[in-house]
Amino acid sequence: MNSPFREEQLSDHSKYIPKNHREQNHPKTGGRQPYPSSAPTAPTSRNISQGNRPQYQEQQSEEYLQWAEPAPPPLPLGDGSISLVGRIATVIGIAGIIALLIIFAKPLSQTVRAFLNDDAQTSEAPARREAMLSTAAAPRGHDREQQAPRSVTTSLPSRSATSGAVVAAATETVPLAPQPQATVAPPPPRAAETAALPGAQPELKAMPVRGVTDAEIRFGIAAPFSGPAKELGQNMKLGIETAFRAANAAGGVAGRQLKLLVADDGYDPTRTPAAMKDLYDKDQVFGLVGNVGTPTAVVSLPFALDRKMLFFGAFTGAGLLRSDPPDRYVFNYRASYAEETEAIVHYLVRVRHIKPTQIAIFAQSDAYGDAGVAGVMKAMRQLSADNAKVLRLGYERNTVAVEDAVSQLQKSRIPIKAVIMVPTYRAAARFIEKTRDLYPDMIYTSVSFVGSTALANELMLLGKRYASGVIVTQVVPVVDGHSTLVLNYKSALAKYFPGETPDYVSLEGYVTANVLIAGLQRTGRQLDTEKLVDTFENLRNLDIGLGTPVSYGRSEHQAVHKVWGSQLDENGHYQPIDLQ
Question: Mean of the pLDDT values across residues 79-105?
Answer without folding.
Answer: 72
